[in-house]
Design a protein that fits this description.
The structure holds 3 protein chains of 3 kinds. Chain A is of the alpha/beta class. Helix content of chain A is about 30%, strand content about 20%. In chain A, helix 1 (about 10-20) runs parallel beside helix 9 (about 250-265), helix 1 packs parallel to helix 10 (about 400-415) and helix 7 packs parallel to helix 8. Among the domains of chain C are: about 80-140 and about 230-315, D-Amino Acid Oxidase, subunit A, domain 2 (D-Amino Acid Oxidase, Chain A, domain 2), CATH 3.30.9.10; about 395-570, no CATH class. The chains are: A alpha/beta, B alpha/beta, C alpha+beta.
Chain lengths: ~425, ~425, ~575
């Protein structure tokens, strides 16, 4: 019997479990697999573009005031101004994990970091290894790729940065400098750079390429388990500021964060029940007594006082749909806020600045982060919901994906354990 | 595509969103280029396969060790390992089976033959020259931890020979081949624990679960074994008796793997599934119902617990851990290693031995990190126990042996029952 | 203005036009083909891929059926590598007319279409997902045809025989000489869309093979051709739920066929008379109908994962016809505008189907030769196109070749197994204005993730090629060494061709535009079938291009390609343009 069961192991679920465990509760995570965090860029987007008109957001915490006034149902509005508090919490956690995030919160400005296609990506706190890429800095950039690596195109990045008024140029190094593998994805390349001799070779080559005063951007493969040492070594040995540019999934910065969080949770006594696909639950009156996950023999029961749903939205697998236009929440079949007809789900342009209405579908909650029905009544007394599952926001469109996960995860967990 | 029905495991390829989480965690792809990774050989390659094709288009899928870490981390529910197993079976159907793999599939017969004269068999096979020749001629890795035949006779013989408790409470025991021929101690410990709990133990006729054949792509032969076990065990299931097994992998096959891979899903398979239990899972169930004797004696030691991939594939939580934590003094340390590397018969194959050892390194490192005082490690699967012993030079015991010891029934060092 | 003199000008780079160019070149005629976009951009590239046995029309249209089986036998030889010998079933489900199967069987025997009745059990053994309540099943020699590969191979054969193939050359105006009663088409003014220049092509005979667009082309010569544009909508299932073509054994109707082609299975089709062949809208009722009818052939297929919907438009023709397009004849029609309209030097070929494209070319050239005088007889039935030595297509070939050559790390499109060198070689060998052109060449972005991972990689690779080729000179002779007919083979493209021989990349489009256009092009075909697992996939793709790439905020935001507008037109009728947010 747990005090709290968190369903889902994305950033939101992990942070929620951490919050509850730190409050002294017996916490278990039940999750189908590992997902969400392996796809993110690794930095924490809080608010990059204002919903609807897609105006770039310069100072997210300030813009948030407007947002919460204009959209009282937005999950950020339910936080009651505790976002900066949540971000501070997260920052101190990352310091504890040895994977410190920093940057924007001090100044209140969004960071603008180079994306793998050379666009300026608005984000808020970022891992230490991404900070030197901030495009508000003046130092010229050298973007270095590895010849033959299919997920990184330095010339494209440099050209697009130049078009935006940055001083940037591109260079290549051979891939066999860091690996003798024939087939290697970014996670394997990162593990290869855990080896100090390999990164010394990389550092020497980078030093040859770079001109004085240049900062060096490389794909985000700078070590996996030994990332911190790898970054320090490379900066010391090249004498240049180094920054990582995140790549296509699997995102190495995301994997590092997940690994660190999972290890930390284990030390806090949180059991992560992975490969546990929740297929049923049992409720009496307005309380959920247990959930059941699929197993080889008989469904495995997980009992708890309280349940926190952090299964994600359409991408995370918390919400499913079919060709008839039916949309449903997968664990408790909670009421959803969703466009009525399938014909209303999308707009004609993929990059429509107003986004696609279906991606705003989700679980509506009250101010306690407890799911409610169409009449506004709480559905279960001991169920909370957080993260991308929540209705009335499109976190991918507004670039609030991680910020929303962290802030609502902490808020919902606090309310659940209080 | 091997699509017998919409419920076939092959259909789960449609769940894949190409996100690469499986490839990130695959312990085999992490150490060798010979395996292009679970996404590649699984849901991706599967779209290019069909029955009766000119030829099997790819054979690198043979380097999948079937550890199922991919299934575990997949956020979308693709049954990658099973897709791979079926692709392997297609290769066998197309190209025939190497003689070595044919032998590996017949673990039960090998056990039987060796047990006729186990000392001679051990001497004959387990000497450097024979192992060298076996590697050269058959491709059986010469250093791999192939078990020794039990010199104290088979479990079955012991069970018939010794007097048994009679009781109204009855339980059926599925021992599996390895307990029967290589580790009868595990079966003896299981019987001792069950009788200690007041159960009369029934050991019905049974045969190999078929896992080695499934692993080596011999699906038709495996199907025969599966159907034969159904016929032998179902009468007990239909009497409402629980059927418990100490081999976590045999139980997995009988409960799920065989029916999934062979596309046999019917009322009989469901009835058998409902009656089957992993030993620790059953004990945990007794515990939850308040029927487990928790009066364990103290076992003062550190025991690193390697959670075998087969145990994780059950998705039944950590029942062994749940029960072991009740034992006073026992400091059980749960490891996070993805796989011991041996993975069924994978690590026995000469071309895969080195891969298996590299994969296992994570588990070995975990054991070493628990200090030099560690006398025993534990793991639910016999395969993992042999590989852990091979990689760490520490004795590895089954959880049931530890339970038996904690009830004062079993000597963990000498690995035998304590006679009262 | 640039001028080209030739004997025959062919308008339209679909199967028929390319076939005509090939046929003409083999007969020793000088021929130029113009296509306003990429080869197969029109109807040829938008059909389900069935190589007809003739079974489909055997009762309704026996003449057409006889043509099909004859051409089926020829194409299996001349275009062997573009054809997969899947075989086909005609399945009588409980809903279908009880008398039809016997008529069908008799008609097949009469025409000479091999047709064998097998037991339902035997059919289920081969296709386990087929409707188990089927009453009767007949096996016929249907097949699956890759119309992209086939057309490219035909074009290559035509080039080798001396033809000139000009992509992205759009007819602005047919040039007509003479007065009333003595008018004659003497060529066309065309626009080189990539370079933005006009070209004048003078020809003794102009052949209009623009399919559904033929009316538009003829109009510029003042000739009226009323094409019956029959829109057909199709849906692709994420994997091959069948490996045999399944047809309903009844009169042809909507949603009665499932074709396994490459890695997918295509449910087709609807048939709806439309006004505008350029902008086809897929209506929700069409999707619903295809799913409902699909369930009758394969129960449960409506719950499968779909990766795409698209519509093609049949260039049907029947003089003075006003009925439904479903009932219009599938026969080919050759219009000789000299006898029909008093305009000499001008032929229009219409109707038919992919399977009969070679025959259509033959009939057209026979007529043209009547006017042009001395030319050789048709050779296309006896001549193979480049690439046939690869043998019939088989599903596993890419996987097999990637494995044999250890090309896993070279994969740019992981779903469809497209290597970097395949992409580069295709870009060098074919004029490439958009990534969609490369999709037709090598199947880029046609798998489950629908461009999620490969769009970025392809844009990056093309950009690298642009950067490098700036210092290189074009050496077009060596270009021909690489055969387009092998562009789908990973093994043949195990290495990228020496970049010193580059490059015919007419494309100097901004990589940002390439990326944006392709994502939009994919989106268009996804909208009608976006739910469940594919919706989840699309959300991941969105995360990649918005959160990770920020690709909606790239420079060159206002740049457009000749196809940007085409991709941006809504592919489904109703979208949430007036809000609809919860």
């Amino acid at each position: 019997m747990s005090d709290l069961i968190v369903i889902g192991a994305g950033l939101c679920g992990l942070i929620a479990a951490y919050t509850a465990a730190r409050a002294g509760k017996q916490v278990k995570i039940v999750t189908k697999g590992l997902g969400a965090t392996h796809w993110h860029a690794g930095s924490i987007d809080v608010l990059g573009y204002y919903p609807d008109d897609a105006t770039p957001v310069m100072r997210p915490l300030e813009t948030l005031h407007d947002l919460t006034r204009a959209r009282p149902q937005h999950p950020y509005a339910i936080l009651d101004g505790t976002l900066s508090d949540a971000l501070e919490n997260f920052a101190s956690l990352t310091r504890e994990l040895g994977l410190p995030y920093a940057g924007a919160p001090n100044s209140g400005d969004n960071l603008w970091l180079p994306s793998p296609v050379g666009a300026a990506r608005p984000t808020f706190p970022a891992p230490r290894a991404q900070l030197a890429g901030d495009l508000r800095r003046a130092a010229p950039m050298l973007i270095v790729g590895l010849r033959g690596m299919r997920d990184f195109y330095p010339e494209l990045i440099a050209e697009n940065l130049s078009k935006q008024g940055q001083r940037a140029r591109a260079a290549f190094l051979p891939l066999d400098l860091i690996t003798d593998r024939r087939d290697s994805n970014t996670a394997q390349l990162a593990s290869a750079l855990d080896d100090p001799t390999r990164r010394a070779k990389l550092a020497a080559a980078l030093k040859q390429l770079a001109q004085p005063g240049e900062r060096i951007g490389i794909p985000a493969i700078l070590g996996m388990d030994a990332h911190a040492a790898a970054l320090d070594d490379l900066q010391a040995q090249t004498g240049a500021a180094i920054f990582e540019i995140p790549t296509l999934p699997p995102s190495v910065p995301g994997v590092r964060l997940t690994n660190a969080l999972r290890n930390h949770l284990r030390q806090l006594g949180v059991r992560v029940e992975i490969n546990a696909d929740v297929i049923g639950f049992h409720a009496e009156k307005d309380r959920v007594l247990w959930i059941e996950s699929d197993a080889s023999g008989r469904p495995l029961k997980h009992r708890a006082e309280k349940f926190l749903l952090a299964t994600g939205g359409i991408l995370g697998g918390g919400i499913d749909s079919d060709h008839t236009g039916k949309v449903w929440e997968r664990v408790f079949d909670l009421p959803l806020a969703v466009p009525r007809e399938r014909e209303q789900w999308f707009r004609a342009r993929f990059f429509d600045p107003a986004g696609h209405p279906i991606f705003r579908a989700g679980v509506p909650v009250n101010r306690e982060f407890q799911p409610i029905d169409a009449q506004g009544a709480r559905v279960y007394a001991n169920v909370w919901a957080a993260g991308n599952l929540l209705a009335h926001a499109d976190p991918i469109l507004e670039r609030s994906l991680e910020g929303l996960a962290i802030a609502t995860g902490i808020a919902a967990a606090r309310r659940a354990v209080k | 595509m091997h699509t017998a029905s919409w419920h076939s495991v092959g259909m789960t390829l449609d769940e894949c969103i190409k996100c690469n989480v499986c490839t990130t965690y695959c312990p085999v792809a992490a150490v060798t280029d010979k395996f292009p990774g679970p996404k590649y050989v699984g849901p991706q390659a599967q779209r290019f396969r069909e029955c009766g094709q000119l030829k099997s288009p790819d054979i690198s899928v043979d380097y999948c060790s079937a550890c199922r870490v991919c299934n575990e981390v997949c956020p979308s529910g693709v049954k990658i390992a099973e897709i791979n197993a079926r692709a392997k079976a297609q290769i066998v159907a197309d190209r025939g089976i190497p003689i070595r793999n044919w032998f590996f599939g017949r673990n039960e017969q090998l056990g039987k033959i060796g047990s006729i004269a186990p000392q001679i068999a051990n001497l004959g096979f387990h000497n450097p020259f024979s192992r060298f020749m076996a590697e050269k001629i058959m491709g059986v890795a010469r250093h791999a931890p192939i078990p020794h035949w039990s010199t104290a006779g088979s479990f079955g013989a012991w069970f018939r020979r010794t007097p048994r408790l009679k009781s109204d409470k009855k339980v059926v025991y599925f021992h599996g081949c390895s307990t029967n021929y290589y580790e009868p101690q595990v079966g003896k410990a299981a019987v001792a624990v069950l009788e200690h709990l007041g159960y009369q133990v029934i050991v019905p006729p049974q045969n190999c679960c078929g896992l080695p054949m499934l692993n080596n792509g011999e699906f038709r032969a495996a199907e025969k074994l599966y159907r034969s076990n159904i016929a032998k065990l179902l009468p007990y299931a239909d009497q409402g008796l629980p059927i418990v097994g100490t081999s976590v992998s045999c139980v997995l096959v009988l409960r799920e793997e065989a029916s999934e891979m062979l596309d046999i899903e019917n009322d009989e398979t469901r009835r058998l599934r409902n009656a089957l239990w992993d030993m620790s899972e059953w004990l945990r169930d007794l515990l939850e119902r308040g029927e487990l004797d928790t009066n364990f004696r103290e076992l003062k030691m550190i025991v690193p617990y390697h959670v075998s991939c087969q145990a994780r594939a059950h998705r039944m939580g950590r029942p062994s851990l749940d029960v072991m934590t009740l034992i006073p003094g026992l400091d059980v340390r749960e490891g996070n290693a993805k796989c011991c590397g041996l993975a069924g018969t994978y690590g026995y194959k000469a071309e895969k031995y080195d891969i298996a050892m590299k994969v296992g390194e994570e588990a070995f490192r975990f054991v070493r990190a628990q200090g030099d005082d560690v006398r025993f490690t534990t793991s639910d699967s016999e395969i993992c126990r042999w590989q852990l012993e091979h990689g760490t030079h520490k004795d590895c015991r089954a959880p049931i042996e530890i339970f038996a010891a904690a009830y004062g029934l079993y000597d963990l060092d000498k690995r035998r029952l304590i006679q009262k | 203005m640039k001028q080209i003199e030739t004997e025959i000008l062919v308008i339209g780079g679909g199967a028929t036009g390319t076939g005509i160019a090939w046929d003409a070149a083999l007969r020793g005629l000088r021929v130029v083909l113009v296509e306003k976009r990429d080869l197969t951009h029109g109807t040829t590239g938008r059909y389900h891929g069935l190589l007809h046995s003739g079974g489909r029309y055997v009762v309704k249209d026996p003449h057409s059926a006889a043509e099909c089986i004859a051409e089926n036998r020829i194409l299996r030889k001349t275009h062997a590598h573009c054809i997969e010998d899947t075989g086909g079933f005609f399945v009588a489900t409980p809903e279908d007319d009880n008398d039809y199967p016997d008529q069908f069987k008799a008609a097949c025997a009469h025409i000479g279409i091999p047709c064998e009745e097998i037991s339902v059990a035997a059919a289920l053994k081969r296709e386990p997902l087929m409707n188990p309540h089927a009453r009767r099943v007949f096996v016929v020699p249907d097949g699956a045809a890759d119309s992209f590969q086939a057309t490219h191979s035909t074009a290559q054969a035509a080039r080798q025989a001396g033809a000139q193939i000009l992509n992205y050359h759009e007819v602005v105006q047919l040039i007509v000489k003479g007065g009333e009663g003595d008018r004659r088409v003497v060529g066309a003014r065309v626009r080189d869309v990539a370079r933005g220049e006009d070209v004048e092509i003078r020809a003794r005979m102009t052949i209009n093979a623009a399919g559904a667009w033929s009316g538009v082309v003829a109009q510029t010569a003042g000739v009226r051709v009323d094409v019956i544009p029959g829109k057909g909508t199709m849906l692709a299932v994420n994997h091959r739920v069948v490996n045999t073509v399944l047809n309903r054994c009844k009169m042809p109707d909507d949603g009665d066929i499932i074709v396994p082609i490459h890695t997918v299975a295509v449910i087709g089709t609807t048939d709806e008379r439309v006004q505008d062949p350029e902008h086809l809208t897929i209506e929700p009722w069409e999707v619903e109908l295809l799913l409902r009818e699909g369930d009758k052939l394969i129960p449960g297929v409506s719950r499968a994962r779909f990766v795409r919907a698209w519509a093609g438009v049949r260039p049907l023709y029947q003089e003075h016809y006003s009925g439904a397009s479903r009932d219009a004849t599938r026969d080919l029609t050759l219009l000789d505008h000299k006898t029909r309209d008093g305009v000499a030097g001008f032929l229009t070929i219409l109707g038919g189907k992919w399977t009969t494209f070679r025959l259509m070319a033959q009939v057209t050239l026979d007529k043209a030769c009547e006017y042009l005088g001395a030319c050789k007889p048709c050779l296309t039935a006896q001549t193979v196109v480049p690439g046939v030595e690869q043998g019939h297509y088989w599903l596993g070939h890419r996987l097999h070749e990637v494995e044999e050559n250890h090309l896993q790390s070279e994969l740019v499109c992981e779903c469809e197994l497209v290597t970097r060198a395949m992409l580069e070689n295709a870009a060098r060998s074919n004029p490439t204005l958009t990534l969609d052109d490369l999709r037709r060449d090598v199947r880029l972005g046609m798998g489950p993730c629908q461009g999620g991972f490969c769009t970025y990689r392809a844009a990056g690779i093309l950009h690298e090629m642009q950067v490098n080729s700036e210092q290189l000179t074009v050496n077009s002779e060596q270009l021909e060494e690489w055969s387009v007919a092998y562009m789908q083979s990973p093994a043949h493209n195990a290495q990228s061709r020496n970049t010193q021989h580059a490059s015919r990349i007419t494309n100097h489009q901004s990589p940002n535009l390439l990326l944006r256009d392709f994502l939009q092009e994919r989106w268009k075909g996804l909208l009608p079938i976006l739910w469940g697992r594919q919706l989840k996939q699309e959300r991941l793709d969105e995360l990649i291009y918005l959160c990770l790439m920020n690709a909606d905020h790239l420079p060159d935001e206002n740049a457009t390609s000749p196809l940007s507008d085409f991709y941006s037109r809504p592919g489904i009728s109703a979208t949430a343009d007036q809000g609809g947010a919860p």
